[in-house]
Structures are given as structure tokens and as C-alpha cells.
């Protein structure tokens, strides 16, 4: 997608949840790492308050979709690495299917069609 | 927007969330800022990227209290609420049940059971439902760590079942009069029936999760 036609705005919360799960399915990560990956993949097209990511990650932790392993950052600070659980992987697949089907449907609805007489 | 690390730390200190979670969030957000600075951002930009403090406060204060589940408190609440509910069942049974026809008594037992469930639900510690649900759907790949929250969920459910079993034992051994035992056990039985169906669904889902795992291990 060309940069000038890229969407500007916030990622819908439900979609952000699915995206975060999908990114964690690729590799465990800490909060900042997820923000970086998200910014790279979307070419910073979406505005994301990075602070909103942490409540979402904690919500996923509450639901046992992710589990946390502690490590130490380069600066010596304790770092929380989020790993997907088996339940999380199942949820990821379900959300992925849902959002891909939704996106396909929207694309079909928005596609220009010749005007009927 | 946060203007400095001190402001961020003050914000976290003022959050109405459990103290251990406050420490953890402080470490996590400061690590975020450190990482952004190490990647080349200015400290102010890193702090601004955290977004609107009011929105962050709303989200954190909604989610974090659910992590505060101390096992002794959860067990105490389970014991007190289930014993109080059992006494309530006995009182309702003595006054209302045993007076009408069998179907009427049965309907009253169901209604009392539902009312008891509602009372226990209101008395339950905050976040216990999410903890029990999380426990039920937790990873089956390997045994997860026995966190405080997991122990609270297991302790809560075990205490509820324990009170029911104690009444049942009292019924069998004759320690409780038969009429009183029936008044208590009938609503509990309907509750157990409801929970039983739910437990079967959970077990079915867990089995469904284990199948691909077993297949991948060649079991």
C-alpha cells in the first residue's frame, strides 16, 4: 500500500488484540519489542499509544492466553517477556480467521462497481 | 502526556491497584522508556509515546485488581459464603419447603439454589471468575507455575466443594438431621448439576486441546 494512502488512525481494540496474539505466535516478546514490530509492519501508519499495549497484555495474561517469563534487559532492569500459551495459540487462530474474513468482506463491499442504470 | 520519569513514577504510585502490580508496572514502563531511549528516541518522546495518562489509568485500574487474589482470603470468603448459603438454604427449607407438593418443593429448591448462587457470586472476591476461567483454559502443554492467583482459584473452588461434601458427610453419618440435610443438599445438588455441565464442557475443550499435542508427540 502506498504510504500516502495508508490509513491514519487507531487500530480497533478487537483487531489490536488479534494482532498482538499473532505477533506473539511468531515469537515471544516484551512490550517495547511488540511496539517496534507493530510500527515496522504498519510502516507507522497507525497511531498506537504504547501505554495501551500493557493493559491489553495484562488482560491476555489474566485470561491465560499469554504467560510471562522474567528476564533482564541490557540496562539491567527486570523485563517481562510474553509467551503465548496453548490456549493463546488456539485463540490466535480463531481471531485470525475472524479478522481475515471480516477484512475480505469489507474489501468486497468497498470495491468499486459499475453503477446500475 | 508524561513529561518526566518522576511524573510517570508518581502516576504509578497513585494508581489504585495492588501494590505488587504497581511495582511490576513501574518496572515494565520504565523498561519501555529505557528501550526506546536506547533505540535512539529522546526521553521525552519515549514518555509521550505512552499516551494519555487518564486513559492508561482507566485501563490499569480496571484490569489490575483482578490479580489481587490472596489464597487465604479467597478460601475464607468461599468458606464463609458457602456456609452462610447453606444456613440460608436450611432456613428457607424449614420455612417454605416441606409444606407443598413434591413439584412445588422441587421448584423452590431450584429457586433457592439460584438465589444462593447469586449471593455467593456477590460475595466472591474480585477477579475470581476470571481466575477460575483462566485456570480452566490454562496451557496443557506443561504444568504452569503455581502462582498466587492460581492457588486462590483452586482454593476457592475446593472450599466450596468442601462445604458441600461436609454437609453430605453429615447427612450420611447422621450428624445432621435428615430434614435439614435435605433442605441444604437439594439446592446444592441443583447448583452442582449446573456446575457439572459446565465442567463437562471445560473438560471436553481441554481434551480437544490435548489431541493435537498428543499427535505431535506421537502418543
Structure summary:
The complex is a heterodimer of chains A (117) and B (219). Chain A has 117 residues and is an alpha+beta fold.
Model description:
- The complex is a heterodimer of chains A (about 120) and B (about 220).
- Chain A has 4 helices and 4 strands.
- By secondary structure, chain A is α+β, with helices and mostly antiparallel strands.
- In chain A, helix 1 crosses helix 4.
- Chain A has helices at about 15-25, 30-40, 50-60, 85-110; strands spanning about 10, 45, 65-70, 80-85.
- Chain B has about 220 residues and is an all-alpha fold.
- The interface of A and B includes residues 31 and 85 of A.
How are helices and strands ordered from N to C of chain B? HHHHHHHHH
Biggest interface and residues each: A-B, 30 and 41 residues
CATH class of chain A: Mainly Alpha
The CATH architecture assignment of chain A turns out to be: Orthogonal Bundle
Q: Report the count of strand segments of chain B.
A: 0
Q: Whole-number average pLDDT of chain A?
A: 83
Q: So, the CATH homologous superfamily of chain A?
A: Winged helix-like DNA-binding domain superfamily/Winged helix DNA-binding domain
Structural category of chain A:
alpha+beta
Keywords:
heterodimer; A: 117 residues; alpha+beta; Arc Repressor Mutant, subunit A; two-stranded parallel sheet; two-stranded antiparallel ribbon; elongated; B: 219 residues; mainly alpha; 2 domains; 77% helix
Q: Helices, strands, pairings?
A:
The complex is a heterodimer of chains A (117) and B (219).
Chain A: E1 9-10, H1 13-26, H2 31-41, E2 46-47, H3 50-62, E3 66-72, E4 78-84, H4 86-110
Parallel strand pairs in A: 1-2
Antiparallel strand pairs in A: 3-4
Helix pairs in contact in A: 1-4
Chain B: H1 5-14, H2 19-38, H3 43-48, H4 53-63, H5 71-95, H6 102-123, H7 128-136, H8 148-173, H9 178-217
Helix pairs in contact in B: 1-2, 5-6, 5-8, 5-9, 6-9, 7-8, 8-9
Amino acid at each position: 500500500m502506498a504510504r500516502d494512502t495508508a490509513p491514519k488512525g487507531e487500530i480497533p481494540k478487537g483487531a489490536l488484540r488479534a494482532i498482538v496474539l499473532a505477533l506473539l505466535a511468531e515469537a515471544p516478546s516484551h512490550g517495547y519489542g511488540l511496539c517496534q514490530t507493530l510500527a515496522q509492519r504498519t510502516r507507522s501508519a497507525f497511531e498506537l499509544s504504547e501505554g495501551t499495549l500493557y493493559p491489553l497484555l495484562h488482560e491476555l495474561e489474566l485470561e491465560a492466553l499469554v504467560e510471562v517469563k522474567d528476564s533482564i534487559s541490557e540496562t539491567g532492569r527486570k523485563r517481562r517477556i510474553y509467551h503465548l500459551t496453548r490456549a493463546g495459540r488456539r485463540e490466535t487462530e480463531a481471531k485470525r480467521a475472524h479478522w481475515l474474513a471480516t477484512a475480505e468482506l469489507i474489501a468486497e463491499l468497498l470495491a468499486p462497481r459499475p453503477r446500475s442504470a | 502526556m508524561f513529561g518526566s520519569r518522576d511524573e510517570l513514577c508518581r502516576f504509578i504510585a497513585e494508581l489504585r491497584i495492588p501494590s505488587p502490580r504497581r511495582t511490576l508496572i513501574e518496572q515494565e514502563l520504565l523498561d519501555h522508556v529505557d528501550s526506546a531511549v536506547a533505540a535512539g528516541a529522546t526521553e521525552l518522546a519515549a514518555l509521550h509515546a505512552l499516551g494519555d495518562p487518564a486513559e492508561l489509568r482507566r485501563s490499569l485500574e480496571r484490569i489490575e485488581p483482578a490479580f489481587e487474589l490472596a489464597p487465604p482470603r479467597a478460601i475464607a470468603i468461599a468458606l464463609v459464603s458457602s456456609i452462610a448459603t447453606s444456613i440460608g438454604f436450611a432456613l428457607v427449607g424449614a420455612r417454605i419447603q416441606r409444606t407443598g407438593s413434591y413439584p412445588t418443593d422441587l421448584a423452590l429448591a431450584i429457586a433457592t439454589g439460584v438465589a444462593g448462587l447469586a449471593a455467593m457470586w456477590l460475595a466472591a472476591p474480585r477477579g475470581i471468575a476470571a481466575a477460575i476461567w483462566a485456570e480452566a483454559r490454562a496451557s496443557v502443554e506443561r504444568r504452569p507455575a503455581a502462582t498466587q492467583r492460581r492457588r486462590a482459584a483452586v482454593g476457592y473452588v475446593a472450599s466450596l466443594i468442601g462445604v458441600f461434601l461436609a454437609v453430605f458427610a453429615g447427612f450420611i453419618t447422621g450428624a445432621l438431621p435428615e430434614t435439614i440435610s435435605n433442605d441444604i443438599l437439594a439446592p446444592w445438588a441443583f447448583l452442582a448439576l449446573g456446575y457439572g455441565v459446565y465442567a463437562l464442557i471445560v473438560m471436553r475443550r481441554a481434551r480437544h486441546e490435548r489431541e493435537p499435542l498428543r499427535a505431535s508427540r506421537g502418543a
